[in-house]
Design a protein that fits this description.
disordered N terminus, mainly alpha, 0% strand, Helix Hairpins, single chain, 15 helices, 3 domains, globular
């Protein structure tokens, strides 16, 4: 086992290691080591029984990819008819991902599968949920992609809202978490419609309001809250971290775009406060 693999393995089972070491603390250094070893193997056993060990990065990425386009198709058909804007968005996502012909066909097949009346969300979201246990950042990225699909016409309809609520329920995302992401995504939608970076600075008070929305803040937040929100979102959307946690490699460009939007919003707010 190389150094990286060893470190990743220790990090994966850190809960068992720490708890075991604390329990063995009364036995001195040797007791701590023994307790940590027992905690490690117990943690590994529990994860193995729960199925967590079988979810490799590659499997998680496949689950994310398939679920992305299946759910996107489900949302597009929610109102009974798939619009040109919804098809355009799906194609734009595929283009941004720079998919090979084979992967593009897979994405289209998943999108078509999601449009079918009999399609059940659980068949793609249950594998994704299992792959992303305790992985809030990648689950959040998934919801952001689906919200953007629902918001291509400015607002998501009641039918789309019901599907998004079911997605959150199946992935273990609370209503409060969803609403916070939805508010940020609406602000980002205005950012996209305005042409991207520079939109915040070029549209006066409205643009600055959108910038605060992208960071999930109110305009009267203090400097400390502003910096904390910015750093948290940048960390959550860091492309390398997301890919390591299950985001498909092909979606790295989308994660990069997210960080650019967050950076643009933060810079615009700081400039407006000078």
């Amino acid at each position: 086992m190389n150094t990286y693999s060893f470190g990743a393995n220790m990090a994966r089972h850190r809960t068992g290691l720490v708890l075991g070491a604390l329990i063995g603390l009364t036995g001195g250094p040797s007791g701590m080591l023994f307790g940590a070893a027992i905690g490690y193997y117990l943690d590994k056993l529990i994860r193995s029984v729960a199925g967590a060990e079988s979810w490799t990065q590659a499997k998680a990425q496949t689950a994310f990819f398939d679920a992305t386009f299946c759910v996107m198709g489900k949302i597009a058909k929610a109102d009974g008819q798939v619009t040109a804007e919804e098809i355009k968005y799906a194609e734009a996502v595929m283009t941004r991902m720079q998919l090979t012909d084979a992967m593009r066909k897979r994405a289209i097949d998943c999108f078509s599968q999601g449009k079918e009346t009999a399609f059940e969300l659980a068949q793609v979201l249950e594998p994704l949920r299992r792959a992303l246990v305790n992985n809030a950042s990648v689950k959040q990225m998934f919801i952001e992609i689906q919200l953007q699909a629902a918001l291509v016409d400015g607002e998501f309809s009641p039918a789309e809202g019901r599907i998004l609520a079911q997605v959150c329920q199946l992935l273990g995302i609370s209503q409060r978490e969803f609403e916070a992401v939805a508010e940020r995504m609406k602000a980002e939608q205005s950012f996209h419609q305005g042409g991207g970076q520079g939109q915040f600075e070029g549209s006066g008070n409205l643009g600055i309001k959108q910038a605060y929305g992208v960071l999930g803040l109110n305009h009267d937040c203090d400097a400390k809250s502003l910096k904390m929100a910015y750093r948290k979102l940048m960390s959550q959307h860091h492309p390398d971290k997301l890919v390591a946690r299950g985001l498909p490699d092909e979606m790295m460009q989308m994660a990069k775009q997210k960080t650019q939007e967050i950076q643009a919003a933060y810079d615009a707010i700081k400039k407006s406060r000078k």
